[in-house]
Amino acid sequence: MRADAADRVEPATNKYLIAVLAWAIPGAGHLLLGRRQKGVTFLITLTLMFAAGLWLEGRIFPLGFDLTQPLVGLAAIADLGIGIPYFVAKFMGHGAGQVTAITYEYGNAFAIVAGLLNMLVVLDAWDIAEGRK
Amino acid sequence: MALFSLFVSVVFATLMRDEPRDQALFGLRLFGGFMAAGIVIGWLLYPLPL
């Protein structure tokens, strides 16, 4: 059943802040909005998925769009979707990518999809903050 | 493939369902679908040369 405009509760939280935090720390947006079970699930699952990508010798693609290699730029944007773990991994020297490793492409898929899924989680947190869900 | 399917199923089920029981059922269906599709597509590709 769709809620009428009068029934909708205007959230007291800043939806822009929620979106930024939801991007930076997977699940943080849901935790701040009181959806504890969802927040904890996203935090554990997405962080583990990104870490699995690094463990499988995946590469964290560098930012900076090179027109000769557009797929690298798109992969970097997808990787960046995971938020702070991207920068932590870079800072700790992970994600160099072992291209000769048999798991290299699997690792890339894990890291890229973890970032893309976190973007969906950010959109979900935004919808909740707007009172749509 | 199983680990990847597990992660994606958990996130999608948590996103799309609100009740834990619904999440578990939907997640299991998604996981089963991913695994079945992976195995079927793998066999369909088997005759193709590398």
Write a concise synopsis of the structure shown:
The complex is a heterodimer of chains A (133) and B (50). Chain A has 133 residues and is mostly helical.
Structure description:
- The complex is a heterodimer of chains A (133) and B (50).
- Chain A is an all-alpha fold.
- Chain A has one domain (15-129).
- Chain A is built from 6 helices and no strands.
- In chain A, helix 1 (15-24) runs antiparallel to helix 6 (104-129), helix 3 (36-55) runs antiparallel to helix 6 (104-129) and helix 4 packs across helix 6 (104-129).
- Chain A is elongated and about 45 Å long.
- The termini of chain A are close together.
- Chain B is mostly helical and 50 residues long.
- Chain B has one domain (2-45).
- In chain B, 82% of the residues lie in helices and 0% in strands.
- Chain B is built from 2 helices and no strands.
- Chain B has helices at 2-16, 20-45.
- The mean pLDDT of chain B is 94.
- The A-B interface holds A 37-38, 41-42, 45-46, 48-49, 52, 106, 109-110, 113-114, 117, 120-121, 124 and B 3-4, 7-8, 10-11, 14-15, 20.
